[in-house]
Write a structure and sequence with these properties.
- With 426 residues, the chain is an alpha/beta fold.
- Helix content is 34%, strand content 16%.
- The strands form 4 sheets. Strands 3-2-6-7-8 form a 5-stranded parallel beta sheet.
- Helix 6 packs parallel to helix 11 and helix 9 packs across helix 10.
- The N and C termini lie close together (6 Å).
- The N terminus and C terminus are likely disordered.
């Protein structure tokens, strides 16, 4: 009699690096070190859990100073699949990641050091410029971007810095800056560096088929929860209008009831839901709408990244197998005992937190998809070769549980079960 068994997966094999992020800064520009630390902790935080080891790594590139302000060691080189920055006579790393993002913090002391012709910093930055020019070519796997500080120093006399800044960079935002510098800055600066960097990596490196369109977000919402004032006034009051206002301040594209007269709305919404990402604004009326249920279920069916901005103001009597099992950010209600400015600030930061988290979820999904489908990924090849193999000694069909980046989606469990390759007993 043949039977079907489920066995544990084979021991996990370390995968080759997929994305390396390098941060370059002058040792006297202390904010550069803070940025490197912040990026390291960010890309090893819970939103990226579930990815195999080495999927995303962050490295710093600088040099230390002696008490008399002299450099006591050279700047470590950077090895990418498209070229090298720095002294190649140092220890060579043959296992360069398939994709690399090189970030140069444009600090005051870096600019000053770049003015010294043939100095190590000048040569290092010129190598970065060469790699940046190459990264604009089709098929490049490297992205070289400047990090723009909160207050950009004068760089007019530095040709190499000017060349680096010919490519639009990413904003430092509130990452690595002192509290005084960011105390009065907009909520849009919260996590701006990680948001813009994630968007740039997806757009320039991970999109398939040479597609370099910016990341688009479909905002799923119930029109019944849009106040009349938001339909007839330029000052947003409801959560949907506020999401649109803050999304406009980012580099992300978005689709919020943007249908034009004559548009095939069913087809248009399907296209938007199945591509990019979905921000679900869950309000009191959201769960009762057929179309919002369909939008979320369609996104889950096509593995579209989803984040929920939970703006419910009343108790939900029961959970939802469709709307649950997604990352959630709480949207603060309009409390009577809180001042208007305080409520607006809290709501604005919640919206930006949801948008930032959605970019992280998208980046994780792109990295996972790339690792899983890569023909050169021996670790996954080994696991896949062991899947659905017939045991000659026991006459059984063995099915292996493989590594996945997140828990199974409850709404799709019937579909998953029906597609399993189990053989019936008999």
């Amino acid at each position: 009699m043949k039977s079907s068994t489920v066995e544990l997966p084979q021991p996990f094999v370390s995968t080759s690096p997929t994305l390396d992020i390098f941060v370059i800064w002058h040792p006297k520009d202390e904010q550069g070190a803070n940025i490197c630390d912040a990026l390291f902790h960010h890309y090893h935080s819970p939103p990226f859990s579930g990815l195999p080891e080495n999927a995303i790594e962050v490295y710093g590139r600088s040099c230390t100073l002696t008490p008399d302000d002299q450099f006591n060691e050279t700047i470590p080189p950077i090895f990418t699949s498209d070229g090298t920055i720095g002294n190649t006579n140092q220890n060579h790393a043959d296992n360069a990641a398939e994709y690399s993002a090189v970030l140069v913090f444009i600090g005051e002391h870096l600019i000053k050091s770049s003015l010294q012709a043939e100095s190590e910093w000048n040569n290092y930055l010129n190598d970065a410029v060469k790699l940046q020019k190459h990264s604009g070519n089709s098929g490049s796997h490297t992205l070289v971007l400047p990090i723009l500080p909160t207050s950009l120093p004068d760089y007019a006399n530095s040709p190499v810095i000017t060349q680096l800044l010919n490519r639009q960079g990413v904003s430092q935002g509130n990452v690595g800056a002192n509290n005084h510098a960011t105390e009065y800055r907009s909520a849009a600066n919260k996590g701006a560096l990680m948001r813009d960097l994630g968007q740039a990596i997806i757009q320039n490196l991970l999109r398939s088929g040479g597609d370099r369109e910016k990341l688009h977000i479909f905002v799923s919402h119930s029109r019944a929860d849009i106040p009349d004032s938001d339909l007839n006034d330029i000052y947003p009051d409801g959560v949907v209008a506020k999401v649109k206002a803050w999304a406009d301040k980012t580099k992300l594209g978005h689709f919020i009831h943007d249908l034009q007269s004559g548009d095939p709305w069913d087809q248009k919404i399907r296209e938007q839901v199945r591509s990019g990402a979905v921000l679900m604004i869950r309000t009191d009326n959201y769960s009762n709408r057929e179309w919002t249920q369909w939008e979320v279920l369609e996104a889950k069916r096509f593995n579209t990244p989803i984040v929920c901005l939970d703006a419910c103001t009343t108790t939900q009597p029961q959970g939802s197998i469709i709307f649950d099992n997604v990352p959630r950010v709480i949207y603060p209600p309009n409390e009577e005992h809180c001042g208007t400015k305080m409520v607006n600030d809290l709501q604005s930061h919640a919206i930006m937190e949801a948008l930032n988290l959605l970019v992280d979820v998208c980046l994780k999904q792109y990295i996972w998809n790339h690792q899983f489908t890569s023909q050169n990924n021996s670790a996954f090849d080994i696991i896949q070769q062991g899947t659905n193999q017939k045991s000659e000694s026991h006459g059984e069909y063995s099915h292996y549980l493989t590594h996945v980046p997140q828990p199974p989606e409850p709404a799709l469990i019937p579909q998953i079960i029906s597609s399993l390759p189990f053989q019936p007993s008999g």
